[in-house]
Design goal:
243 residues, alpha+beta, Structural Genomics Hypothetical 15.5 Kd Protein In mrcA-pckA Intergenic Region, Chain A, Alpha-Beta Plaits, Pseudouridine synthase, 3 domains, nine-stranded mixed β-sheet, 4 helices, 14% helix, elongated
Length: 243
């Protein structure tokens, strides 16, 4: 189980020495006021029922996370990066998220795409969701400038890449995810599920089918789905996987 000083250091973004000092000075306690005086106290790791351990530091409530998974509604106009010299980053929008300094993106969304972007402290989860052998599906809703042609049995893109398309269909306006911002001039809406995530893959698929993407929103990644009530730019911590 994680130890108190380690959790304090990670969650408060301070050194382990500084965390140990807080404990030694009697400034850390259970939420009921009982002091936590031993920096090596083992605390239960977060799980689905209780993803964080509640304590207080200097009388202020603090939730200590051992690991974190964050669902973010990435808006258009920000890049999936920890830092960028030209554009604001999705990471900057997570400044108040638990374990912010340890979060890493699970895959990416390009500058002009919106929707579900996952962040986690768990390297194993990133591997499980992004490794090609895992064949994790990603679903997108798109607003298109014109109808798309029927999907041929063996579609190849301009560079020879053959995308693996699990599902492709037109969408009635009422069936599109609320996060898809449909611009004026959109002729048709579509839902597409792919295995993999090559560079601009969805946009290139529709281009190969004679259409053009005006707006693109990822609505799911594996078992994770973009909540309908999560506004663009906002995020939500969810329980880490139990395995």
């Amino acid at each position: 189980m994680p130890r108190l000083a380690d959790l304090l250091a990670r969650n408060l973004d301070i050194s382990r020495t500084a965390a140990a000092r807080l404990i030694a000075e009697g400034r850390v306690a259970h939420r009921d006021g009982t002091p936590l005086a031993d920096r090596n106290t083992e605390l239960p790791a977060g799980d689905a029922a209780a993803p964080a351990v509640p304590v207080s530091v200097d009388g202020e409530a603090v939730s200590l996370w051992d690991r974190a998974v964050i669902l973010q509604h990435k808006p258009v106009g920000v890049v999936t990066a920890l830092r960028d010299n030209r554009h604001p980053t999705a990471y900057d929008l997570l400044a108040e998220a638990p374990l912010h300094g340890s979060l890493r993106a699970v895959g990416r969304l390009d500058l002009d795409s919106s929707g579900l972007l996952l962040w986690t402290t768990e390297g194993a989860l990133i591997q499980r969701l992004t490794h090609p052998k895992r064949r994790v599906p990603r679903t997108y809703h798109a607003a298109l400038a014109r109808p798309f042609a029927p999907l041929p049995p063996d579609l190849a893109l301009e560079d020879g890449h053959r995308p693996e398309i699990e599902a492709l269909a037109e969408l009635a306006p009422g069936d599109a995810h609320v996060a898809l911002a449909v611009p004026d001039g959109a002729a048709v809406l579509a839902s597409i599920t792919i295995i993999g995530g090559a560079y601009h893959e969805v946009r290139r698929i529709f281009a190969a089918l004679g259409s053009h993407v005006l707006a693109l929103c990822r609505i799911s990644f594996g078992a994770y789905r973009l909540p309908a009530d999560l506004s663009a730019g906002d995020w939500r911590a969810v329980p880490p996987p139990t395995t």
